[in-house]
Amino acid sequence: MIKDNIFRFFPDPVFRYKIANHNQHNKDLSKYIYDIYNVDKNGIKLSNINGWHSKPFNLNEKNSPPNNFFLSIKDHIQDVFNNYGWSFIPEKIKCEAMWAVINKKGNFNIEHIHANCHLSAAYYVKVPKNSGNFHIFNPNNISRNRFPLISKTTDLNMLSASLKVNEGELLIFPAYLPHAVGKNESDEDRIVVSFNLNILS
User: Fold this and answer.
1) Residues 6+ positions from 89 with CB-CB distance below 8 Å
2) What's the CATH number where 51 sits?
3) Which of 18, 69, 136, 181 is least surrounded by CB atoms within 10 angstroms?
């Protein structure tokens, strides 16, 4: 039998990084997020089921926790660009929006994508045990809707995957990749900061 005869084209990556000084970032971001939550407990409704989704942060506020956090992850964003083989031109990379999600017990986020962006990201500020994994789904709808009986799971037939995430971790992935958040089964809040990136032409 011929070996190495499979070409795996068109992979869909999820990049995972552990952020330096994440304890301080998490402390600062938690206070910032709860201050917003206490003023606007309704937030907005998107993929969140009973959880709280903030309105977009004011990214023009210099030295704010979101801005300090975003400045600290530039090397990770550059690493994503390097892996993709894209030209990294900082002045053409725009953070379209950044926001927070607080999931209390029983809350979760349904499957969704972030349309009209190149990249999306999730940073984990607080992740209690059993507070919900990060779920991703095959973006090829045809393969998800029509397939034969699967006898063994491989990377060629996977329809979904699940990642257990930890505090201080950053995930960056293509914005078209369908994703969801599992139900928070803990008695503590799960706090995530998400954002979208666009590359200006």
Assistant:
1) none
2) 2.60.120.620
3) 18
